[in-house]
Amino acid sequence: MAHGNHEFMLVGYLDDIEKRPLKFVDPIPSARICDACGNIPRSTYTLLCGHILCGTCYDGSATKGGCACPLDGDVCATEDVTSKAFPAENILNRKVHCWNEASGCHVVLPASEVAKHFRHDCQHHRSRCPTCLATVLWRDLCAHLKSGCTEFVLCAVPEALAVTAENDENHLVAFQKRVERRVGEIDAKLAQLSLQGDSQNDKLVDLSHNLNHLNEVTREVRAASVKLLESLDHSVTELKALSNERSECIMASISSVLTSVQYPNMQLCTVTGYAAHKDKALKNGWSNTMGEKVYLRRYYVSWGVAFRNISGSVALHLRLQLHKGQNDEFLKWPFSNKLKLSVIHPETREERHVCAVPDLSQDYVRYYCKPVEVSSEAVYFPNAKHELSHLERDGYVHTDQLSLKMEVL
C-alpha cells in the first residue's frame, strides 16, 4: 500500500542525500516508512502490534528482552520482532524532484542522481540582489543589476521597493543641488567674461543658451522623477495588498489541508438508559447500541457497545462498524489496529479499560476488509468485556448511564 505523503528523508543510503528531504514523484509503500519518525530506512523492524520502526526508533524503544512500541506502548519480545533489509536500488531508482523546484527547475530524475544534478547541472540556484533585495536566479544576477533591477526578478520585496524609491529621491535632490551650484559658478564666470569686452559676446550668448537648455532639462528630470516616485508608491501599495491577499489564501489552504489530514484517535460517549439495556439483555440475551460515524486515525467508523447475557451474568462488549471513507486508498487493510474500551468513573474520573484485537481469521476477516459498499457489517468483540456487576459495585454507573471512551491505537 502506498503512502499519501511524497516528501521523505532517506536514512542509510547515500551520504550526498542522507537526511535531506526528497520529494518523490510517485507514492512510497507504507512498509518502507517508519511509523514513528516518518523517514525511509534501509532496514525496518515490524512489531507485533503492526507498527513499523527504523533502526534509530527501534533502538530508542528498547527494553530488557525486547522493546515497547513508542506509538501504543505494547511490549514486544526481541524474538517476535520481524526485521527486514530492503535493496537500496528500489528507493534510489525512484524519481524525485530537484531541490530547486520552487525556483523553477522542473527536472525529475532518480534519487541517486539528484545531488550531482544540484551541485553541477542545476541552473536555478537563488540569490538576493544587494541593491533592491529581490530574489533572482544566481545565473541572472549580473544581468538583473545591469537592467537597473527591472528584469529577471523571481520574488520582489515591496519594502525594498519603498527603500529604493526613497534612495532615488535623495539622489535626485543631491543632483539638483550640484546643478544649481554649477549654475552659480557659471554665472560668476559670465560676470568675469562680460568685463573682457564685446569679443566674448557670441560665446556668452551660446553659453546662456546652453544654461537655459540645462535648466529646462533639469526641470524635466525633476518632473519625471516625481511621476516615477508616484508610480513606485502606487506599485508598492498594490504589491502590499496583493501580498496580504495571497498570505490569507495560503493560510486558508494550509488550514484546510491540516483539517483534512489530521484526525483524532479517540472519542467519548455516554450510554443512557443503562437499566433498560440491562433488563433487555437479561430477557432477550442481548441489547446493542451504536454511535454516529466519525473518523478515528483516518478510518471512518461507528462504535458502540453490546450488553450480552451469558448464564445470567450481563457483560459490556465493544462493537465496531467500518464505513467507506475518503482516506481508504491510503490506509492499511484489513483493519488491524488494536482497540481500547474504557469506562470512566463519574466522580474520580478513573478509567477501567479492556483491549480488543481484530480477529483476522478466515471466518471474521470480512468484518475488517475495506468497505466495498457504504458500510461493512457490525461486529462485537466477545473477549473484550466489562462485567456489569463489577461496574455497579465500584460506582461506575451513575444516574442510569455510563461514561465511555474508545481509542484506536
Brief account:
With 409 residues, the chain is an alpha+beta fold.
What this model shows, in words?
- Helix 5 (158-194) packs antiparallel against helix 6.
- The chain has helices at 55-60, 88-92, 114-121, 141-146, 158-194, 201-261, 274-284, 388-393; strands at 2-3, 7-11, 21-23, 28-29, 40-41, 43-46, 52-53, 62-63, 66-68, 75-77, 82-85, 95-97, 108-110, 126-128, 135-137, 266-272, 286-288, 294-296, 299-310, 313-322, 339-344, 351-356, 379-387, 401-408.
- The protein is built from eight helices and 24 strands.
- It is elongated and about 140 Å long.
- It has 409 residues and is of the alpha+beta class.
- The strands form eight sheets. Strands 17, 18, 19, 20 and 23 form a five-stranded antiparallel β-sheet that branches. A four-stranded antiparallel β-sheet has the order 16-24-21-22, with no helix packed on it. The chain has a three-stranded mixed β-sheet with strand order 3-2-5, with no helix packed on it.
- Helix content is 34%, strand content 26%.
